[in-house]
Specification:
By secondary structure, this protein is of the alpha+beta class. It is built from 17 helices and 24 strands.
Length: 624
């Protein structure tokens, strides 16, 4: 070919279910580009692929076994998952070919093939050797229904109605007497917080304020409360039920008082309140409150993320249930308390009154709010609709839960900065999409790589039974890679550590020779994020080359495949795996919602093809 080679790398669809109109839009668009480049004189090979591991297949196969009353072990479950995935590969392959898409259909890439799974182990080992991989306890987004951690790419935001509550924490110690009670142990003095996750109150360990913000001590109903000055009117409105005017120091406002709030016609009895004094956040150093439900302390701490936009200007801090809370807790040496199990139910750590109550369904919220009300510390409760993270597969609301997971350190070796530079060196179509992926990479947390599931590539880590240390050893991981290459990743679960590890292998820490294996699997986005290395340089397809000229997928892949491919590529190769990235829109239903298999609002392209022929569908794609 006189003009050289043009490589469009196929983002792998998931091998589960019939193709829908979104698949057709994407595959036909790719086919048009590849055929156009071929007609221009380029050699433009197209190797299609499939993403085979993951939760939907595992869930469907588990349901099959359940309906038969069978209880498979992990290896049996995985074998059936492999068969199930292959059935759908063959079915989808015929459907894509029916659309007139040209490609190497007899030799596609599969993320569950031996060589692909072995390549994933190799890439993980490479990143581990370079210092990117670590194991630690952090709050991660957790799906209680699927009982696994999720990465950012697996999260969808949607409207959710939460319980919004104001809770007061009694002040135990006030060393600088900022509450103006004339004593270091003031009575009837409280720090006021607002939260939309009442179930996290049992895990509270601190109260965060902004060091440079303005706060007031305000008195009403005979009690003193700490509130941020810019939020005072809103807080009093929420608690009292009506809007209140600006408050000057020493002014009395409320029921029976002169001013705009009196006799406003709402019939709400607003308690008398007045500002006792103004203080800076820094003045609150040393103030310690008591937990509203338990006999333990919740000290005031300083945090830069506390805003004056909503709430009370004091952030209830539970290091086991939030990323910022965790970071603050680490700075102040707080415990990581997470009294919630994998199914989203309170453990005994939450106290006997709450143990067993589930977060999904609202039972945990209800019990916590009842306990707060009985203790006299629940000042207000109302419903609050807001955008909230949901699981991309089962659509359940997610929770932050501190668990021990495997992560990729996104800031190691300037990885984040180098990724942002790689984004700048890439051509983005439409050009505005560079802003989207840049913002995502700039703000993304470390990549949570581990999943508490069965169908995927096992994380090739061992644990020493003598000293308990986790082991990411290059010789051990090479032994795993060889095993997976010759058998497949099921062998990781079928074999004992002694059968996998090199003869005479000893713990690098203590010399022990008795080991356990990691049971978690790798995030499927690590699988698909590795396709460029597993496919473009594979001798099975000698006409391919790395990096790809083009990636083209829907715009949701800025936080999905475009992002995961970039993270892996910059970590392994130091540059982007693509020269140009094109993103297209979604197919929408008649109400304007994006079509999703899980929502049941998809149109079958096969029905269109049967009725009108493939060319009509291709013409529609070409003209949209």
């Amino acid at each position: 070919a006189p003009l050289g080679t043009f490589i469009l790398h196929d983002g792998p669809p998931y091998s589960n279910g019939d193709i829908h109109l979104g698949h057709a839009l994407n595959k036909i668009a790719k086919d048009i580009i590849v055929k156009y480049k071929t007609l221009c004189g380029y050699r433009a090979p197209y190797v299609p692929g499939w993403d085979n591991h993951g939760m939907p297949i595992e869930n469907n196969v588990s349901r099959e076994f359940m309906e038969r009353g069978d209880k498979p072990d992990r290896v049996q479950l995985r074998r059936r998952c492999r068969e199930y995935a292959m059935q759908w590969v063959e079915r989808q392959k015929a459907q894509f070919m029916r659309l007139g898409v040209r490609g190497d259909w007899q030799n596609p890439y599969l993320t569950m093939s031996n060589e692909f799974e072995a390549k994933i182990v190799e890439i993980f080992a490479d990143l581990a050797e370079k210092g990117y991989i670590y194991r630690g306890m952090k709050p991660v987004l957790w799906c209680a229904k699927c009982e696994t951690a999720l990465a950012d790419a697996e999260v969808e935001y949607g409207e959710h109605t939460s319980n919004s509550i104001y809770v007061r924490f009694p002040v135990l110690r006030d060393p600088h007497q900022v509450f103006g009670a004339g004593t270091e142990t003031p009575a009837n003095s409280y720090v006021l917080i607002w939260t939309t996750t009442p179930w996290t109150i049992p895990a509270n360990l601190a109260l965060a304020v902004h060091e440079g913000a303005d706060y007031v001590i305000v008195a009403f109903d005979g009690d003193r409360y700490l509130v941020a000055e810019p939020l005072l009117r809103k807080v009093l409105h929420d608690i009292a039920g009506e809007s209140v005017p600006e408050l000057a120091e020493g002014t009395v406002s409320g029921h029976g008082a002169a001013g705009p709030s009196a006799g406003s016609g709402t019939g709400v009895d607003v308690p008398e309140h007045h500002v006792l004094k103004r203080v800076r956040g820094a003045d609150l150093d040393g103030v310690v409150a008591k937990h509203p439900l338990f006999d333990r302390e919740s000290p005031i701490v300083f945090a830069p993320y506390v805003t004056m936009e909503d709430g009370t200007g004091v952030v209830h801090t539970a290091p086991g249930h939030g990323k910022e809370d965790f970071d603050t807790g680490r700075e102040y040496g707080l415990e990581v308390l997470c009294p919630v199990d994998a199914s989203g139910a309170f453990t005994a750590q939450a106290g006997s009154r709450f143990a067993g109550a589930r977060i999904l369904g609202g039972e945990a919220d209800r019990r916590v709010m009842e306990a707060l009300a009985e203790a006299g510390h629940l000042l207000s409760r109302r419903s609050y609709s807001h955008s909230y993270p949901h699981c991309w597969r089962c659509r359940s609301p997610l929770l932050f839960r501190a668990t021990v997971q495997w992560f990729m350190d996104i800031d190691h070796d300037d990885h984040r900065k180098r990724s942002l530079k790689a984004i700048e060196e890439t051509r983005w179509i439409p050009p505005v999409s560079i802003n989207r992926i840049s913002a995502m990479v700039a703000s993304r947390p470390d990549w949570c790589l581990s999943r508490q599931r069965a169908w995927g590539v096992g994380i090739p880590a061992f644990y020493c039974r003598s000293c308990g240390k986790e082991i990411l050893d290059q010789r051990a991981m090479e032994a795993v890679r060889q095993l997976v290459l010759h058998e497949n990743s099921d062998a990781w679960y079928a074999r004992t550590p002694a059968e996998i590890l090199p003869e005479g292998f000893a713990c690098p820490q203590c010399g022990g020779q008795d080991f356990d294996k990691e049971t978690d699997i790798l995030d499927v986005w690590f699988d698909s994020g590795s396709t460029h290395l597993a496919v473009l340089e594979n001798p099975r397809w000698p006409e391919l080359s790395w990096p790809a000229d083009v990636y083209i997928e829907g715009s949701d892949q800025h936080r999905g495949w475009f992002n995961s491919s970039l993270m892996v590529s910059v970590g392994v190769r130091g540059k982007a795996p693509y020269r140009t990235v094109i993103s297209h829109g979604f197919t929408l239903d008649e109400t304007g919602k994006a079509m999703h298999k899980s929502l049941g609002n998809v149109v079958s392209p096969l029905e269109v093809v049967e009725k009108y022929g493939a060319d009509i569908l291709r013409l529609w794609v070409a003209s949209t």
